[in-house]
Amino acid sequence: MDKKRDIYGLCRNQYVYCTLSCISDGMQYGWTAPVIPKLLADDSPFPVTEHQAEWLETILMLGACCGLPLTMYLVDKIGRKGSLIGSSSTTLVAWIVIAFAPCIEYIYVARFLAGLAGDTAFVAAPMYIAEMADQKIRGFLSSIIYLMMLAGVLLVYCVAPFVPLWVPCIIGIGFNSITLVALPFMPDSPYYLLFKDKPDQARKALQQLRPHGNTEAELKDIAVAIERQKSEKGRPQDLLLVKSNRKALMIMVWLNGSQHMSSISVMLMNLHSILEEAGAVHIASSTAAI
Predict the structure, then answer these.
(1) Residue 218 CB contacts under 8 Å (≥ 6 apart), including other chains
(2) Which residue ranges traverse the bilayer (predicted)?
(3) For 31-164, where are the alpha helices, taking DSSP H only?
(4) C-alpha to C-alpha distance for 34 and 64, rounded to whole angstroms
(5) CA-to-CA distance for 164 and 145, rounded, in angstroms?
(6) Which of 175, 16, 184 is nearest to 95 (CA)?
(7) Which CATH number applies to 1-185: 2.60.40.2080, 1.20.1250.20, 3.40.630.40, 1.20.1260.10?
(8) Are 29 and 61 in contact (CB under 8 A)?
């Protein structure tokens, strides 16, 4: 019973706090669908053309692309928890800028920052949870992060069409604020601490995570994995030269490419406009999207 409480204690702690920021990132991802029609309306808070509105979607994706090399650097430099704190801080700033934006250019900057932060969060959060969670629920917890992102999309669909533009910003700020308050009190990843040659801190973190488990045995296993990682440090070209890496890369490129080439991002970012253009008669596009 104690061991079960230890395992699922992560669900109530690190898992919840990490995925709250992913809900906020999901809200940013789906934000344009209900908001662009409002910005193009006659009662928009500031004038916006269709061409300017289209860039609101593109800039988020450009920010995510630019954030990839930064994310690869940060997760090893300041750690997974530090990267999540930085990501949540950046998204919080983005929401504040959107809430008080006097013109479209301010929102462009906020969307780019949100893209940067979202990329970091969706890399750092699975790493953080996978390295903290018990191996029995590690895969389950890491995979649910994507569901939290979709929950954020659904949330902004439910709220944004019916309220002023600043209201979704307040909700997003709330999610990120909870993460920023809670995460500093959470232990860092034992993997990261051992990688940085901090065995005492790693032991303390593992004891906090597994108060009833055999922490010394697990710490030795982690240390062995870290030593193997350091001794077998790969090169970028190994993604193509090593057969197993090449196969994994092809699978990921195929799956991710198929998802985006099927217009998933276009649909999620423009669903309300698509339904409006389809000529819905019996139900409003804002309701049909939900």
Answers:
(1) 206, 210
(2) 82-101, 107-128, 140-159, 165-186
(3) 32-40, 50-77, 79-100, 104-132, 138-159
(4) 21
(5) 28
(6) 175
(7) 1.20.1250.20
(8) no
Q: What is the pLDDT of residue 190?
A: 86
Distance CA 124, CA 83 (A): 6
Residue type, 222: I
Measured CA to CA in angstroms, residue 16 lies from 23, 135, 286 at distances of 11, 18, 29
- CB 59 within 8 Å of CB 115: yes
Q: Which of 130, 122, 112 is nearest to 84 (CA)?
A: 122
For the question of whether the overall pTM of this predicted structure is more than 0.90, the answer is no
Q: How far apart are CA 46 and CA 245, in angstroms?
A: 50
Q: What pLDDT, on the 0 to 100 scale, is given for residue 280?
A: 64
Blockwise average pLDDT, block size 10, the chain, 290 residues: 46 65 91 92 88 91 89 88 92 95 94 93 86 73 82 93 93 93 86 87 83 77 80 73 86 85 83 78 71
Residue from 61, 36, 27 nearest 265 by CA: 61
pLDDT at 8: 46
106-121: per-residue pLDDT in tens? 999 999 999 999 988 8
Distance of CA 168 to the CA centre of its chain: 17
Q: 210, 193, 215: which is closest to 202 by C-alpha?
A: 193
Would you state the structure tokens that stand for residue 258, as one six-digit string? 């198929």
Q: Under a CB-based contact definition with an 8 Å cutoff, are residues 33 and 271 in contact?
A: yes
Question: In angstroms, what is the C-alpha Rg of the chain?
Answer: 21
